[in-house]
Hints:
75% of the residues lie in helices and 0% in strands. By secondary structure, the protein is mainly alpha-helical.
Amino acid sequence: MNATRRQLWVLVLLTLVWGLNWPVMKLGVSGTPAQPAHWPPLTFRALSMVFGLPVLAAALWWLKVPFRVPRAQWGEVLRLALPNMVVWHVVIILALQSLSSGRSAILGYTMPVFSALWGVAVYGDHLNRRQTAGVAAAALGVVLLLWSEFSRFGGAPLAALSMLAAAFVWAIGTHLLRRSTSPLALLTLVFWMTALTTAVLVLLAIVFEAGSWRRPTSPVAWAIAYNAVAVFGFAHAAWFYLARSMPPVASTVSVMMIPVLGTFSGAWALGEALHWPDFAAMVLMAVAIGAVLWRR
């Protein structure tokens, strides 16, 4: 598979936005190790999406993409929104409070490995030798990055397992999206999946966190703005574009640089410790990406 120039540029921007967002989210819900400042996580995510929806709406209006969804298509929108967005966003923002930003990114981005294996087991996808090597390199990179974190899992086993479960559900959702025959425009689908997820998060925030609401500090407000514009205004649409336009292994393994960026940016911005597996894993992630994107 040869990626087009447009796909590569989208991939680079997506990697930067999502990779840097892990320490941004951690800052928003937990503060820094030097200045811890816990903020209601579901409320943080809900506000990010509430302010992100107008950005998406402006993009649809500017590009003249229709908002309307035929009644017969609402079932498909719900079927795709649940594994691709609802489960993922609820689980990761709760688990992030108990894990470092780098390790959260690593656990979350086991998704490409789950996606490749799920495609082989359920849909009969075939991996050639190069793709198999790429998946193996990505999996080994994840193991290496987790190596120094094993001792911490005793303190947050539920958070770690929850993050892995969310990654598994996201992998299933990626396959459902790729195989969807919905005639809806991609941006229309993204907008309404985001809107449905926003409604769920707002409801959960009201039920479970209304008593903890308070004015956001400047770092929290900045983190919400970053998520609203960069993540929900751009990154999700970019990911769904790649997931639909590239082969399964290429679109999933090619984003494996995101946890590496999340790990190193978290170490730089939040003072999270790095170990030799972090550096070895970066090389393995580069090998994995090259194995699926390099020209034959």
